[in-house]
Specification:
about 40% helix; two-stranded antiparallel sheet; alpha/beta; Rossmann fold
Length: about 375
């Protein structure tokens, strides 16, 4: 990986582009200390002494990979744009599952007695607005994935015919919460009395909520579509302990976790802590890396470390971890690919209820295969 060049990403006074998405980057990304080699390694592109990214190039790279931007020192994109066929598949699977979930709890006499709750822990604005073609096509060829407008997960849940008794939308950004509140008032006003809008850290709120509810009288679906690798394992454990929650979680195994792991050394302290936080164990180091003792004619040499896992192995490890806390987990999650057929995310499902989870897992596994 070439020479490390320390870069302080300070944006110029002149706008990089008239495109509103890049203008948003110009307005937001002002204090990200970015090491060029680390950026290139994280994004999975080559970097050498002769290849230096321009300032505009860095901004486009960061914008295109919103997961990378969000994960690197907590920076996030101001606009809520994202898109592609993979997003449609994700939302289709979620929407179809919610329909089936509510059919069970409105038609089954025993289930009718239970209150149903839907929680979207990284709700955003409620909509998704895909990237304009000219923003990313030149860099990564995503132009065929873009759409002018698509529904976000919040809208999908709110427009169900058989609505949940209660909806909770969480986001750490005030403007996202206000935009979502406004969307509900304007477009699904009949659902407004059912909605709770929470401006808080999703991990903290979910852990407290899971431990405070009466799970004998209600069931829930929690959807986690996080900003990067930001779902703590303690949150997943808290959800599993309820034995009453079905969990959908988007795991960035290829575009996130895999790119946080260098090929010839362990991740640095910050990224190592992030990986441990996501997996809930340090065992990922033994699973993903191999240490070899070296020696030559001059005697022992420093040990070498090499990465021995592919993206599929990272996902398999995450699924194994889910099985340690949930009684039912889909073995083969839905893999979401970009237009170049490269894997990015996995939409994973786990059911917490011992009895009801058997039906839930059949539905979710079917959707993972067919959507």
């Amino acid at each position: 990986m070439g020479v490390s060049v320390a870069v302080h990403l300070t944006l110029p006074e002149v706008a990089l582009s008239t495109d509103p998405a890049l203008a948003a980057i110009e307005a937001r990304v002002r204090h990200v200390n970015m090491n060029q080699s680390k950026l290139a390694d994280f994004l999975g592109i080559s970097c050498s002494r002769n290849r230096q990214f321009s300032l505009a190039g860095k901004c486009q790279l960061l914008y295109t990979h919103t997961v990378s931007l969000a994960e690197y020192r907590g920076a996030t994109v101001a606009t809520h744009r994202f898109g592609g066929a993979w997003t449609e598949r994700k939302l289709a699977a979620l929407g179809d599952y919610l329909v089936q979930f509510q059919v069970i709890f409105t038609k089954n006499p025993a289930a009718q007695k239970l209150r149903t709750v839907y929680v979207d822990a990284f709700a955003g604005t409620g909509d998704r607005d895909a990237l304009p073609d000219n923003t990313t096509a030149s860099l990564f060829g995503y132009s065929d994935e873009t759409r002018e407008f698509q529904q976000g997960s919040a809208r999908v849940a709110l427009e169900l015919k058989n609505k949940f008794h209660h909806y909770v939308f969480i986001d750490r950004k005030v403007r996202h919460i206000e935009a979502l509140r406004d969307l509900v008032r304007r477009e699904v006003p009949n659902a407004a009395p059912l909605c709770e809008f929470v401006h808080d850290d999703a991990n903290s709120w979910l852990q407290a909520w899971c431990s405070s509810q009466d799970w004998k009288s209600q069931r829930a679906v929690v959807f986690l579509d996080p900003y990067g690798m930001s779902v703590a394992w303690e949150t997943i454990e808290a959800i599993a302990r309820t034995r009453a929650v079905d969990l959908w979680i988007l795991f960035p195994f290829a575009i996130g976790a895999n790119r946080m792991m260098p090929s010839d050394e362990l991740p640095d302290k910050d990224w190592g802590m992030s990986l441990t936080n996501v997996f809930g164990t340090v065992d990922w180091m033994k699973r993903f890396y191999e240490r070899k003792s070296n020696a030559d004619l001059f005697g022992p040499q420093p040990d070498s470390i090499s990465k021995v896992v592919a993206p599929g192995g990272i996902l398999a490890f995450f699924v194994e971890r889910l099985k340690t806390v949930f009684p039912h987990v889909v073995d083969e999650p839905m893999i979401l690919y970009n237009s170049n057929n490269s894997p990015m995310y996995a939409l994973c499902f786990a059911a917490g209820n011992d009895k009801g989870g058997k039906t839930a897992i059949k539905i979710a596994a079917h959707l993972a295969r067919t959507r």
